[in-house]
Every structure is written in C-alpha cells, then in structure tokens.
Amino acid sequence: MTQQILISTAAIFGLLAVIFGAFGAHALKKILSPEQLKSFEVGVRYQMYHAIVLLVLGFNSKQTSPAIYWCFTIGILLFSFSIYGLVMSDALEKKLRILGPITPIGGLLLAIGWGLLLLNVI
Prior knowledge:
Keywords: Membrane, Transmembrane, Transmembrane helix. With 122 residues, the protein is an all-alpha fold. It contains four helices and no strands.
C-alpha cells in the first residue's frame, strides 16, 4: 500500500468524521434522542480513531501490509457507516434492520486489522 493512498484515505475519513461529528452535535441534536445521538457519536469516534491509525500507518507505509489497510478501511465503512444508517433510519421511523448485522462485521474487521498490525510488528 502506498503512502499516498494511506494518507489520503486517512484524510478522507478524518474529514468526514469532523463533518459528521459537527453535524451530529448541532443539526442532529434537535432530531435524535439522547440514545440515538450517543450511538451516532460512537460511529464518529471509531471512524476518527481509525483515521488516525491509517495516518500513522501512512508515515510507516513500508511496514504496512495491504491486509491491514483493507481491514481498517472496510471496517470503518461497515462499522461506522452502518451505525449512521441505523441511527438516521430509526430517527426517520424507517429503521433499516438489514444494517444491524453489518455493524459487528465492521467491528470484527477493525479488530482483525489491529491483530494483523500486532503480527506485523512481531
């Protein structure tokens, strides 16, 4: 995985996390219940954590395997974005239940990414 791809992906996810976080704190605060807002914030937080990890990996790209990159990237998309979809669809009273099983798959990919990172260092 090239340094440019890693850092670009990190920047996109970081940018979106800031935008979604601000959107949640201001616009959605009036629409979402406290529980829904808390779930939305979990998605934003995990997205930002992993954007930062991708950024750090970008500065060490020679030691980063493509598998780590893909686990984190797909994990963010499945975990955080399914949470956004679940929260928003619930708020609109049209809950997309199909997204429910996607969230833990994303979380599993994030965990696998961390495990691969550990193995890569060892």
